[in-house]
C-alpha cells in the first residue's frame, strides 16, 4: 500500500539505506525509488494479496542507525529478520502494535536501553531473538503474555534484575536463553511447569539461592546450562535433577561448573564443564 511504502521509505532513510549491501529496487539515494513497487521489486520485502507488507528480511545487510517508530504501523507484518547488522537504537515501544508478528530476529546488533513492556502485546509471536545486543534494565513481566512463543533468546546482553515468575505462563516455550547477563535473585521454581522446555540456558549470571527441585519436572530437557552463578549447594545438585539426568534419554548436557574448577559445586550427574559461554566439554 502507499502507506506501507511511506513507512518503508522512512525505514530506508533511518537505517542508512544507500550503503546497504543489497538494496535492489529500493533506490540508490537517500530517497527510495518512487516508481518501483515494494511488493514487486524491493529486496527483502514480501506482501500479501492486498499488497500489505508481511515480511522484511534484511539480515547481514549493513543496516546502520535507528529503528523508526512508524514501523509499528505495518500492521500486517508477520516476519522481520534484521539480525547481524549495526542497528544501534532502542527498540521502539510501537513494536507492540505489530500484533500479527510471529517471528522477530534483531539479534547481533547494538540495541540499547530496555526491552519495552509492549513486547507483551505480541501475542502471536513464536520466535523472539534479541540476543547479542546491549540491552539493559530488567525483564518485563509482560513476557508472560507470549503464550505462543516457543523460542525466547535474550542471552549476551546487560540485563539485570530477577527472572519474572510470569515466565511460567509460556506454556509452549521450548528454548529459554538468558545466559551471559547480570540477572540476580533465584531461579523461579515455577519454571519446572514449562513442560515443553528443551533448552534452559541461565549460565554466566549472578543467580543465587538453591537450584529448585522443580527443574526435575522438565522431562523434555536436552540442555540445562547453569554454570557460573552463585548458587548455594552443600552436598549435591538436587536428586530430582540427577534422576532426570539418569532417566531422561533426551538430556544431553547438564552443566554447573567451570572446567578450571569442576569441584566448585558438587554435581555427581553433570555431563559437561565449561571454559566460557557455550564452550563446554564432556566431564
From TrEMBL:
A Pfam family hit: LRR_1
InterPro entries the record matches: Leu-rich_rpt (IPR001611), LRR_dom_sf (IPR032675)
Localization of this protein: Membrane
GO cellular component assignments: membrane
Main location group: membrane
KW Transferase (keyword) present: no
UniProt keyword list: Membrane, Repeat, Signal
Protein name: Leucine-rich repeat-containing N-terminal plant-type domain-containing protein
Protein species of origin: Leptocylindrus danicus
Lineage of the organism: Eukaryota, Sar, Stramenopiles, Ochrophyta, Bacillariophyta
